[in-house]
């Protein structure tokens, strides 16, 4: 799963790329890591 934005739907107003729609259960327990340094920030425990 990728958390980066895509420009696939940037020409359609008020649209949300499907990559940004996740179930709460999919996010819980997910590790958060910085893209620039690769440093682990923690684990998602609350949405």
UniProtKB/TrEMBL annotation:
This is PRC-barrel domain-containing protein.
């Amino acid at each position: 799963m990728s958390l980066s934005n895509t420009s696939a739907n940037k020409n359609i107003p008020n649209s949300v790329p499907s990559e940004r729609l996740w179930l709460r259960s999919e996010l819980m327990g997910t590790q958060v890591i910085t893209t620039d340094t690769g440093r682990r920030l923690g684990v998602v425990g609350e949405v």
